[in-house]
Amino acid sequence: MINQNQSGKILLLYGIIFAGFLVFLAVMLFTVLDPRHIPSKYTAESSKASRGSIISADGFHLATTKKLFKAVVNTRYIDPQKKDLFVELFSIYSGMEKKTILKKINAHKGVVVLSYNIPQIQAHYLKKLAHELRRFKVFKALKNPRSGLLSVHGLNIIESGESREYNYGNLLTPIIGYPHKLEEDGYTFVKGVKGLEKRFDDELSARQDGYSRGKRDVNSYILLNKESFTKPQINGLDLKITIPVALQIKIEKMLDQMKKELNAKQIMLAVMDSTDGDVLAMASSNRYFPKEIKRSDYPSLNSGMIEYSFEPGSVLKPVTFSLLLERKLVNPYDLVNGHNGRFKIGRKMITDEHKFDWLSAENVIVHSSNVGIAQLAQKLSGFDFHEGLKKFGFSKSSTHDLIYEKTGSIPSAKRLENQIYKATCSYGYGLRANLMQLLRAYSAFNNNGKMVYPKLLHSLINEYNQETKIPYEEQVEAIHSATAQRMKDILIKTVNKGTGVKTITPGLEVGGKTGTAHIVEDGRYVNKYNTSFIGFVNDKKKKYTMGVVVVQPKKSQFAAQTAVPVFKKAIDIMVEDGYLQPDIVE
């Protein structure tokens, strides 16, 4: 028989076993219920889409986006025995000096940014380096104080933003324009402020950032398989413009030289295909570097071709004369009294630089007689004059491809019933226009009466290099074909026998009209001038409308000595580059 003492011992043993079993169950229950810090089998990656480029007609990238990356390392994880190896390799791959790297990692324990501006290609190689550094155990594993698990934090290359690059410096500014920087969630990106950068900001802007998620391998790289998810990165569209770099460079260089020679405030020049509106050159002597805008550049930030509105002077006379021809109010061979260069309308004395007794109506244009055109304009009603100017595009936007255009103004129909306003407006005073409006108006004389819209954007190019051409705007008939042909002949005569003789180029058809106009300051005309020459130049195959505006030349106030030589030099450049082929019979 089991005595009482033995029974007690057996019961105690069973109690201990039972208590141990309860402890075991409690531990198991706690283990099951407690969240487990197991590294995720999945990982994700994201990439930022880039802004599109601006590309010239001859395929040069004028504006591009450069992605920037930053290199980040947690210094606590660098194995002290391998610190020198890390510094050596990072210096080789990044181009940074070793002493700079050492200074950064010794200055702070924890997360350190080694560089903020790593180019994309360099970032690609640094990412490979980061992988190799892990493989060679340059970074040691440390226990997470919260989870108690070991982890390794190595070198991280993180996309930090983008920078806009202008590969040809100040070429084609201010037409290209410039952007400004914005920051969102620590990422720096750019948005257009002026020029093409602003006008087509929506098209250029990045469409969709890339994103990938899936199972990871031992190095935390995504395993791309049927279980992974990928949203593609879609960059902004590229803009291909109508202007070739080679021609633009030569035109700009010529304008820089002529600005000095004429001691002018600014010179602007534009060349456009008269038949479809493609712009071949749009140049200013006043340019800036988009990456280095200084306070002195502020006046040059505006595109003078559309944002400088001025009284055009005598280049408006052909428009006035064409309105008279269109309504059969004048015959080109009618005689007009030149009044020996002085003619009074009301209280206004109208004068000519050269004195004439009598001259034919068409010679009023050829010899640029204010007295003659002021008298002829009286035949137009105020309504017809006003509507005619609107039909030629004045006071309206000249092109849809640029932004912030100053469209100028024209006198009301009622005001143009006044003889004095009618007279002064006939030779380009009392209204305001910009260079591109004048270019568009003159295209009618070289295109059978139809005006074309100046066109800068040729096409949009997507991620897959697929090109979508931009359709041309519908041409607007300003005058009938017969009227346009007569005006074309008169403008050719103006070059051959009148104020534009210095533009004559053997083997080419050249026509145009000079203009000189006083500048208004504080509501009064001052002794400062703008000069201009608007016209066309054609060979057997191509037709171009071209315009020059010289702002405040000090060398001379006459267009024949300022704007005309610039126009001629532009013709010579176009011949040299093969845009024009003179038909010269040996």
Topology summary:
Elements: H1 4-33, E1 42-47, E2 54-55, E3 61-74, H2 83-94, H3 98-107, E4 111-119, H4 120-135, E5 142-143, E6 150-151, E7 155-166, E8 179-184, E9 187-192, H5 195-199, H6 201-204, E10 210-215, E11 229-231, E12 238-241, H7 245-262, E13 266-273, E14 279-284, H8 304-307, H9 317-326, E15 335-337, E16 342-345, E17 348-351, E18 358-360, H10 361-366, H11 370-377, H12 382-391, H13 419-426, H14 435-443, E19 450-451, E20 457-461, E21 467-469, E22 476-477, H15 481-497, E23 509-521, E24 524-538, E25 543-551, H16 563-576
Parallel strand pairs: 2-12
Antiparallel strand pairs: 1-10, 2-3, 3-4, 3-7, 5-6, 8-9, 10-11, 12-20, 13-14, 13-25, 15-18, 16-17, 19-22, 20-21, 23-24, 24-25
Helix pairs in contact: 2-4, 7-16, 9-15, 11-13
What does this protein look like?
The chain is of the alpha+beta class. The protein contains 16 helices and 25 strands. The protein is elongated and about 155 Å long. The protein starts with a helix and ends in a 10-residue tail after the last helix. The model has no long low-confidence stretch (mean pLDDT 90).
